[in-house]
Amino acid sequence: MHIVCLDMEGVLVPEIWINVSLKTGIEELKLTTRDISDYDVLMKKRIGLLEKHKLTIGDIQSVIRTMDPLPGGREFLDELRAKTQVLILSDTFTQFAAPLMEKLAWPTLFCNTLMIDGLGRVTDYRLRIKDGKKKTVEALHSIGFTVTAAGDSYNDVTMLKSADKGIFFRPPASILKEFPDLPVTETFAELMAEIDAFIGA
Questions:
Q1: Beta-carbon contacts of residue 117 (< 8 Å; ≥ 6 apart)
Q2: In CATH, what number does 17-64 get?
Q3: SS3 for 73-138, per residue?
């Protein structure tokens, strides 16, 4: 039996932190896992910036509610879910995801959790499990699934390499130079063609 594991931000929806950066004018919040490969370093930097600028979870959620899936993202996901099982594996947080999941017709999402204090300030984050994308693929293998995976960032690489078929989707040039062995797609049509060829759809 086959299953497709997709990253969320940069594949199906825009990068949340980049949108928060654009709305708030805090330039450093534009940094993502495309720029910093160590997720803990990245998140500690983000939390520090939120504290410095006195931004609450409500401020971030108000930005997220204005966001839509990437053009063609919902249609791609609908078509893919009609062909095979799909699981979204993301380093986003439960407190961020709901408005975007609603716009994608509520696919199954595995993600992480933010720690929020009584004033709505983000104080820390909790991973569902360390290297959760890779370990999810390994767990799916252990129960008999063949896995195709697609992502765009450093935090997707171990997932892509653990999958039976790993595919980059619109990755930055810096990542391509480091991992030239993985196939690259730039459109949803190309990504669907790669998946179809592998699963025999």
A1: 123
A2: 3.90.1470.10
A3: HHHHHHHHHHHCEEEEEEEEEHHHHHHHHHHCCCCCEEEEEEEECCCCCEEEEECCCCCHHHHHHH
Q: What pLDDT, on a 0 to 100 scale, did the predictor assign at position 176?
A: 87
Q: Which of 9, 15, 152, 194 is labelled catalytic?
A: 9
Angle at 73 between CA 72 and CA 74, to 5 degrees: 95
Q: Burial, 192: exposed, middle or buried (Cβ in 10 Å; 0-12, 13-18, 19+)?
A: middle
**pLDDT confidence tier of residue 139, bands split at 50, 70 and 90:** very high
CB-count burial class (<10 Å; 0-12, 13-18, 19+) for 167: buried
pTM (global) more than 0.85: yes
Q: Cα 33 from chain centroid?
A: 10
CATH topology of domain 2-14+69-199: Rossmann fold (3.40.50)
pLDDT tens profile 58-97: 999 999 999 999 999 999 999 999 999 999 999 999 999 9
Taking the domains of the chain in order of start, what are their residue ranges? 2-14+69-199, 17-64
Is residue 79 annotated as a catalytic residue, yes or no?
no
Catalytic residue at 7? yes
CB-count burial class (<10 Å; 0-12, 13-18, 19+) for 177: exposed
